[in-house]
Amino acid sequence: MEAPAREVRLLASHLLGFTVTPLTARDLPLDAGALAALVARRAAREPLAYITGRRGFWTLDLSAGPDALVPRPDSETLVEAALAAFPHRDSVGAILDLGTGTGCLLLAALSEFHRAFGVGVDISPAAARLAARNAGACGLSARAAFVVGDWAASVGHPFDLVLCNPPYIASADLAALMPELGHEPRGALDGGPSGLDCYARLLPALPALLGRQGVAILELGAGQAADVAALARRAGLTHVGIQDDLAGVPRALVASVGARQKTFGSGRSGG
Fold first, then answer.
1. What is the pTM (predicted TM-score) of this model?
2. What homologous superfamily is domain 58-269 in, according to CATH?
3. Cα Rg for the chain, rounded, in angstroms?
């Protein structure tokens, strides 16, 4: 644990039913045994979000669990890139989120693009159910649908915005990563020998999924920007840019098949 005192306070708050920390009431009863059990789970490096069942993303409070990746702040870069690509928010009518997991990307986008309807696709039925529950809790069920399927094979409608956080960690690198990742679904992390397998499958399908002014935004692993941009161009995506995250790491590929007036992302070429 990077901040054990803070995390113990969060776990104690979870037991007491608080939604904010630090604890402000010292007289409330706390089951020491139950707290010890939660601390033991965290000491075994189970993600805090799985223990509490909650995770904040963008402006949303989402349910989290081992059926889907824990939403991460780095992925908010994709939402920022979407807002930059569509300064007129009413111009977005249809959004697709491939590998939706908790639904975090789709629901964050729907919270900003108020006229849009979104479809989230996940190969895991349990993840799709989790995303649907999050849509309901966020008051977005009327504008979201979730489909169990294999990437783009389940959809054919042209979309204004396509979002995706694919598995992008090279298989050989998984064992060396922080232990928390061992609790998360391997299929949502493992990008094959090079980390690029899912991009190679997904990118050729994107031109058919995008409307004339459509934009695709895909999360990137560190050091992958040039390779993924090259794959995108070979797939027929003619306008390709890169958006950095807050740490300055190239985090999102932003691409389209049609001419657009807005410069994507940071304005840098994807390679």
1. 0.86
2. Vaccinia Virus protein VP39 (3.40.50.150)
3. 19
pLDDT exceeds 70 at position 270:
no
Residue 128, by phi and psi: left (phi above 0), alpha (psi -120 to 50) or beta? Answer: alpha
For 251, counting Cβ atoms within 10 Å of its Cβ (0-12 exposed, 13-18 middle, 19+ buried), the class is buried
Q: Where are the domains of the chain?
A: 4-44, 58-269
Q: What are phi and psi of 97, to 5 degrees?
A: -120, 110
To the nearest 5 percent, what fractions of the chain are helix, strand and coil?
40, 20, 40
Q: How far is CA 193 from CA 51, 163, 177, 225, in A?
A: 31, 23, 15, 17
**Res 18: pLDDT:** 60
Q: Residue 211 corresponds to which tokens in the numbers above?
A: 């409307």
